[in-house]
Write a structure and sequence with these properties.
Oligomer: single chain
EC number: 2.3.-.-
Organism: Gilvimarinus japonicus
GO molecular function: acyltransferase activity
Helix content: over 70%
Radius of gyration: 21 Å
Structural class: mainly alpha
Number of domains: 1
Protein name: Acyltransferase family protein
Keywords: Acyltransferase, Membrane, Transferase, Transmembrane, Transmembrane helix
Order of helices and strands: HHEEHHHHHHHHHHHHHH
Length: about 375
């Protein structure tokens, strides 16, 4: 898959903004608490519901990785040279930007030591290698959003195996096996580590075996070639949105017991992966002209989305630490969003134009 699809970049931009807004609302809740409640027809509505679900930008990133990288590799001969080239580019895509951020955060922490806690040499090494939230040490990440990176890197490692499985038994069976693995993994964690609150075991639940359904769903839609009319495409988009919203409301209905080990904790993530994959397929279908998702601002945000993802959280944390208590009103909470975004976007652009793009372009030249 070498064709440039603007809507995919737009979706990456949406995913990055969703995570940014989610963390802003969590760290600066005053504006959301003031603006979100709405009573209509005797029912209370939360206008910030989608911002509260902004963490779903992460599984959306995973679905897009499965779609893009699986589509690139699925028709290639999996020779040693092909795989080494693929893994080399994936490593260069992740580590340089992370290491640059780590160096900058270390300098900032000299003046703002509470930005991240002191680390031993071993913990620092684990973060440098991105062996974080991984057995046997389960080292915590320096930057909270880094928790997804080992999952992404693990997917790069096993993608050739998924492709071999697909070639052996077909993409439908391969997808079913991946979803079954995710469900079995999450069920096993719950059964073997009993507790009243599984948020403490979230790193284990969300390791690659527990998240493989998101990547597999993205990979699966690369095999679809459905000829929809305009009306059929619109109905499919509507179905994707309805399914997505229904799953959100289903989770909210059981949120009081969800983290206690409810069976929904086992199946909800694979189900939301299906709805996200359907959205991605609708957005990349030939009937979609991408007037919004393919717009220049969203495409640009998609290009710098990795930098947005890396930088928004430490920027927001730093604002909180520099002026604690200042952001407790709706006005200052909204100001925090503006300030953190105005700082995050230039940092993301610097990361993209001076680290990510040159390194990836250099590797392309060398490979050619």
């Amino acid at each position: 898959m070498t064709t440039f699809i603007p809507t995919l970049h737009g979706l990456r931009g949406v995913a990055a903004l969703a995570v940014l807004l989610f963390h802003w609302n969590a760290l600066f809740p005053a504006f959301g608490g003031w603006a979100s409640p709405l009573e209509l027809a005797g029912t209370k509505w939360n206008l910030f519901m989608q911002i509260n679900f902004g963490w779903l930008g992460v599984p959306l990133f995973f679905v897009l990785s499965g779609f893009l990288l699986g589509g690139q590799l699925k028709d290639k001969e999996l020779t040693r040279g092909t795989l080494l080239h693929f893994w080399r580019r994936r490593i260069l895509r992740i580590y340089p930007a992370v290491w640059a951020q780590l160096a900058i955060l270390a300098l900032i922490a000299y003046w703002l030591p509470s930005l991240f806690p002191p680390l031993s040499t071993f913990e620092l090494t684990q973060n440098l290698l991105l062996w974080i939230n991984m057995p046997p040490w389960m080292t915590s990440p320096i930057n909270g959003v880094w928790w997804t990176l080992p999952i992404e890197l693990s997917f790069y490692a096993v993608l050739p195996l998924i492709i071999l499985l697909q070639r052996k038994c077909g993409w439908i069976k391969a997808t079913f096996i991946c979803f079954s693995l995710a469900i079995l993994w999450r069920y096993t964690i719950i059964q073997t580590l009993p507790t009243d609150n599984y948020t403490q075991h979230l790193p284990l639940l969300d390791m690659l075996p527990g998240s493989i359904s998101s990547f597999a769903a993205g990979f699966a839609i690369t095999f679809l070639n459905i000829r929809w009319s305009k009306l059929q495409w619109r109905l499919a988009c509507l179905a994707a949105v309805v399914l997505f919203l229904a799953l959100e409301y289903w989770l909210l209905a059981f949120i009081d017991v969800y983290w206690s080990g409810h069976w929904l904790l086992v199946i909800w993530n694979p189900l939301i992966a299906l709805s996200l994959a359907l959205m991605v397929y609708c957005a990349t279908h030939q009937q979609c002209h991408g007037a919004v998702l393919g717009s220049r601002p969203l495409v640009w945000l998609g290009e710098v989305s990795f930098g947005i993802y890396l930088w928004h959280f430490p920027v927001q944390k730093a604002l909180n630490l520099i002026a604690p208590g200042y952001w407790d009103t709706p006005t200052t909470s909204a100001l925090a969003l503006c300030v953190s975004t105005l700082i995050t976007l230039p940092l993301a652009a610097l990361s993209y134009y001076f680290i990510e793009k040159p390194i990836m372009g250099w590797r392309k030249t060398r490979a050619a």
